[in-house]
User: Fold this.
Amino acid sequence: MNGSLKNIAVDVLSKQGCSVTVSDLYTMTFNATATRNDITGDLCNPQHFSYGIETKEAFKKGCLCEDILEEQRKVHKADLIIFQFPLYWFSFPAIMKGWIDRVFVQGFAFDFPGCYDTGLFRKKKALLSFTTGGTEEIFSKEGASGDIRYLLWPMQHGIMHFCGFQVLAPQISYAPEYVAEAKRKEMLMNWAQRLEKIWEESPIDCTPPWYFH
Assistant:
């Protein structure tokens, strides 16, 4: 289902004249682990390695490894980034979280005081499109998993909004494995129809009341 959702996004946006770039992390065998190897130059403090400090300085000097630099170039060019994924344990899959850990380094994705509404990506839009294993009822306030917005808080606010993104409403495809084929086709059609007018959308309100009202 995630592959189909990705293909629809590529197709619809391409037909609009957009230049679409796909980072298929699994096909790329993207390394999700943040390590010393992400820095190609000398360390600032080899006696006490701090990943955050070292990658911040490496970004300034152009000394991050090539796979990170390549993904940063893609982000730099993008007006809209769609994160397409299956929800794993109430969050991103590990490989996607690792992509964020390694690519969204300080200086590139955020800086202080440049975060949230004044963040470095404030001219860009971001959208989470994902599938769930549970039904919409399960992810309601009365459901066993609680309101889906609780799960979205760290992803949409703590990562995307923190970096300044204008966060568009999530595209949630509930339990596609457990519904009829007609329902899955409806999910895909709804996504395609939304993408037709995606550039007209306004960002959601990334404040606590929106998530926890």
